[in-house]
Design a protein that fits this description.
The complex is a heterodimer of chains A (252) and B (295). Chain A has helices at residues 3-13, 21-41, 46-56, 59-79, 82-98, 101-109, 113-117, 123-152, 157-179, 186-206, 208-213, 216-240. By secondary structure, chain A is mainly alpha-helical. A 6-stranded mixed sheet of chain B has the order 6-7-8-3-9-10, with helices on both faces. In chain B, strands 2-1-4-5 form a 4-stranded antiparallel sheet. Classes of the chains: A mainly alpha (252), B alpha/beta (295).
């Protein structure tokens, strides 16, 4: 027999199995159920959780922060003078941080902390995820702003650090320190204290005789101190967020 | 699933909110009954790891729940008394958010959200913002979020607070339906919430669980009987001073009193069937719901 004939004999001897449509459907459903069950049982990884949280942060505050930086750049481009630069940067830097307050405080202001604290990813991890995302976004925005400003506005790095970075850092310290507080009005306190800080900063930079007396080592010392205090405040938030119910909330 | 509570105590400054509770709970519905200020919420918060006890332990299948950490919360569902949410989220978005913090993967979360929305009767409003929902609908979203991870332990703190009677009945039926094969602990000061669905009732006062058992056991162990007595309106105050009056119904010809007493108060009194509400009044008295109990 030729090869073709052999193949024909072989194929004629084979029977096509009868496919039971019902069984196929059951198998598909069982596979889906098994996949669903395994998805339900294996939790999200830390990285997946972090990126899922991007979806639930209101982007309007990031857009507002970007607009603040854009407005600042435009003002600096138009005005150009040293005093105007100091004033505008000293005001806009705290405003940039204040725009974070609604998102940082939202679980306290909406009383959703209990549900969050009783979840697989604890309140500590939720705060950490939010702060990490804010840090990444703000770092990107500020890096772009600084790079563009240094090139287009001929600002020095020192001026950027003293006029923008320092007041921003102090405002962050105020916000995070208040975030540690268990008091319900801590968000408003942070906002008001930030406004007071803006006023204090303006008094310092606009009084020439005070401003001129602050030398570079003093600025450096203040910046380092503000950094250290910021790290301390962030750690305190991290440590205290799970003790929210320990003190002054209803224990009924 | 077994939860064992050993010598559980929580002190806030000079106040002992939970006072040396010892309890063992398995699958079934447990109704935690007590007035405002009894310590129910503090007790439940400890069960959900929101607060650490001052003394004592809570063991889940023999392991300390605070040491288990995320692994314990993976099997836990919690609906707090003050259920807060993000008002600008839609119902669907809110449940997907809670699913993400419960560690549920997106595909499973979508399917689970769909199933639960159908079960709580909110499929038609899944795209509505949370702030636009009625009180009853918000509570149903609350129970849905508690159920997202198909928990083995479900803790519901005053889940029917603020709901009208029809919503309360609906909620009760829903809880009854969801309580299959899991441990459900439901706290309330409304007796009817648990009267028909709880397998075991825990009575709590001043931080202690002073009595527990099935409804029949609790009714049988109370040393009082219930009497119905018709009196003149002028005599009502006299009877209230002499006996614990569970109910006063003003009628055109006088008043009908429901009196709790071991002995028959009057020859004209007729004995009635004791209910759980009578027991509640017997133990918690007229202070039930008094705001002075809340600090």
């Amino acid at each position: 027999m030729t090869l073709d004939e052999k193949l024909k004999v072989y194929s004629d001897s084979q029977t096509i199995p009868k496919i039971d449509e019902e069984c196929v459907k059951k198998t598909i459903l069982a596979s889906k159920a098994a996949l669903y069950q395994s998805e339900l049982e294996s939790p999200l990884s830390g990285i997946d959780f972090l990126f899922h949280q991007i979806r639930y942060i209101r982007k309007r505050w990031w857009i507002a922060q970007a607009l603040v930086l854009l407005a600042l750049w435009i003002f600096l481009f138009i005005s150009g003078s040293g005093v105007a630069m100091q004033r505008s940067m000293g005001i806009m830097a705290p405003v940039f941080v204040i725009l974070l307050l609604p998102e940082l405080w939202k679980n306290q202001s909406n009383a959703s902390m209990e549900v969050e604290a009783a979840s697989y990813f604890s309140i500590r991890k939720i705060y950490a995820a939010r702060m990490t995302l804010f840090a990444i976004a703000d770092l990107l925005m500020l890096s772009l702003f600084f790079a563009v400003s240094i090139v287009t506005l001929k600002l020095t790095v020192g001026e950027m650090i003293i006029q923008f970075f320092l007041p921003m850092n102090v405002t962050c310290c105020i916000c995070f320190r208040n975030l540690c507080s268990n008091r319900e009005e801590s968000g408003y306190t942070a906002f008001l204290m930030s406004l007071v800080w803006i006023a204090v900063w303006m008094m310092i930079v606009l009084q020439e005789r005070i401003y001129r007396r602050i030398t570079a080592p003093i600025w450096a010392g203040v910046i380092i101190l503000s950094f250290v205090y910021l790290i301390y405040s962030v750690c305190k938030v991290w440590k205290n967020c799970e003790k929210y119910w320990e003190v002054n909330h209803s224990w009924n | 699933m077994e939860l064992e509570i050993i010598n559980l105590t929580k002190e806030f400054k000079e106040i002992i909110a939970v006072d040396h509770i010892n309890l063992s709970m398995k699958n079934g519905v447990y109704g935690l009954l007590g007035v405002n200020g009894a310590g129910k919420t503090t007790f439940m918060r400890m069960l959900c790891t929101l607060i650490r006890p001052s003394v004592g332990k809570i063991l889940c299948e023999g392991k300390d729940i605070f040491e288990m950490d995320g692994e314990y919360r993976k099997i836990l569902g919690y609906l707090p008394q003050e259920f807060g949410f993000y008002p600008d989220f839609t119902v669907q978005d809110y449940l997907m958010y809670v699913a993400s913090i419960k560690g549920i993967r997106q595909t499973a979360a979508k399917k689970r959200t769909k199933i639960l929305l159908q079960q709580v009767g909110l499929s038609k409003v899944q795209n509505r913002k949370m702030k636009k929902l009625s009180g009853g609908m918000k509570r149903r979203v609350g129970i849905a979020q508690a159920m997202l991870n198909n928990p083995k332990i479900l803790i519901l703190d005053e889940p029917t607070a603020g709901l009208d009677p029809s919503e309360r009945i609906r909620f009760r039926n829903l809880i009854s339906e969801l309580s299959q094969d899991r441990l459900v602990l439901l706290s309330t000061h409304i007796v009817s919430d648990i009267e028909y669905i709880a397998n075991q009732i825990l009575l709590m006062q001043n931080g202690k669980i002073f009595h527990s058992g099935t409804q029949e056991e609790i009714l049988n162990e109370v040393p009082i009987r219930v009497w119905r007595l018709d009196v003149r309106k002028s005599e009502v105050e006299h009877w209230q001073a002499m006996y614990k009056v569970a109910n006063l119904k003003t009628m055109p010809q006088g008043a009908e009193l429901r009196i709790l007493s071991e002995q028959c108060p009057d020859t004209n009194a007729k004995e009635e069937e004791l209910t759980l509400e009578d027991v509640f009044l017997y133990y918690f008295g007229e202070k039930a719901g008094n705001n002075d109990d809340v600090l």
